[in-house]
Amino acid sequence: MITKKGILLICMIMFLGNVISAQTFKYIGADKCKLCHNKPATGDQYAKWLKDPHSQAIKTLSSQASLDYAKKNGIADPAKEAKCLKCHSTFDRADAKIRGTILASEGVSCETCHGPGSSYKSPAIMKNQAMAKTLGMIVPDKALCLECHNKDNPFFKEFNYEAYSAKIAHPNPAAKK
Ligand code: HEC
Ligand code: HEC
Ligand code: HEC
Ligand code: HEC
User: Fold this and answer.
1) From the alpha carbon of 29, which atom of ligand 1 is closest?
2) pLDDT (tens digit, 9 = 90+) per residue, 134-163?
3) Ligand 4 pocket test: which of 33, 114, 128 has the largest number of ligand atoms within 8 Å of its C-beta?
4) Which are the contacts of 163, defined by CB distance < 8 A and separation ≥ 6?
């Protein structure tokens, strides 16, 4: 015997399921993450990322090394070349439909590693990792790094996950782990 309450509950679950599956997660850009992740007490991830080469990855495509490589390999402008942008720019990696408010100038941005933030961006959701994951948050791992840290990169250096993670670490000292 299904009670009225039971039917209501089933309807609610079906409705929520639809909302979640019909939803496409969009990029919101590092400026939005900065609103909360810029506090020294919780690790100021934004300032750490600004010092991290990932935030400079777009500028790198206009560096002398990039221009020299482009000249030798018949590339007109590496900063406009899809073959380079696919690893140096979160904006260009994203399908145009889900670019949201992310800027092309952000390089390899927060949301490359943590997932497009439109649906998980509220603190209540982010405090609950399981929920955040159903709403688009990615917990970064080695496989994710290897999407770009591989030999398709003309400037490839041997990738060591532990050493490389330590170089870009931005932990929250206040987080209970
Ligand atoms: C309105 C404030 C706010 C905004 C905007 C925000 N965050 Fe958060 N975020 C939080 C809070 C609060 C936590 C929980 C901190 C804790 O308890 O460790 C958190 C936690 C996280 C975590 C850790 C989650 C886990 O379980 O490992 C990541 C990663 C994260 N945020 C990334 C982002 C990214 C990327 C953006 C931008 C797309 C963003 N946040 C935008 C407030 C915010
Ligand atoms: C979307 C592609 C992409 C992903 C994913 C990515 N990286 Fe990178 N990474 C880059 C690019 C591009 C650079 C070079 C930035 C520059 O100097 O312009 C870089 C540079 C670095 C550097 C600096 C290396 C040096 O020579 O000082 C470290 C450290 C690093 N990445 C660690 C990581 C780790 C750890 C992960 C996974 C958690 C990761 N990266 C994921 C693209 C990526
Ligand atoms: C498969 C992903 C990928 C592609 C494709 C890619 N890059 Fe990179 N690039 C990276 C990563 C990752 C790094 C950081 C390597 C490291 O330090 O370990 C990097 C570093 C660089 C550097 C810095 C080298 C240094 O040590 O200072 C330059 C310059 C560069 N890339 C230019 C380009 C150009 C130009 C193109 C297109 C012709 C390109 N990249 C294509 C991923 C890529
Ligand atoms: C190149 C990939 C990469 C980029 C770019 C990146 N992160 Fe992270 N982030 C990581 C990794 C890896 C971890 C550690 C995950 C774990 O706990 O194992 C992490 C952890 C975090 C945490 C959790 C810290 C903790 O100790 O609980 C927060 C919050 C966070 N990142 C926010 C950001 C924000 C905001 C930005 C942009 C300003 C950003 N990240 C850019 C890879 C990245």
Assistant:
1) 38
2) 999 999 999 999 999 999 999 999 999 999
3) 114
4) none
